[in-house]
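Bench notes, afternoon.
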Amino acid sequence: MKDSLNELHPTAPLSAYEKAVEEGVDPRCIPQYLDGPVPVGSDIVKPVYSDQHNENWKHLFNRQMDLLPGRAGEAYMHGVHLMGMNDGGIPALADLSNALNSATGWQVG
């Protein structure tokens, strides 16, 4: 039995998972190639997200927050608040890193 779309339709382009396997990359990861050192904390540049991306975030964030009470622990709920996460748009990784650093001394990098 043929397992992949490419085996069923040889002219179909390979999926990202199939390409990753061919390249010897863990298909669960998105490889990133940097020209310099890894940015850390405030040096992390925020991507420009479209209004639609931010609307998607708002919908998903609110849906998740509505489902969490009674399911997620107090520590998790406190962490969401502490990190400053809200439905106002996709959070900047640098802002999350700064909040994490203030609370724990750890940062994203």
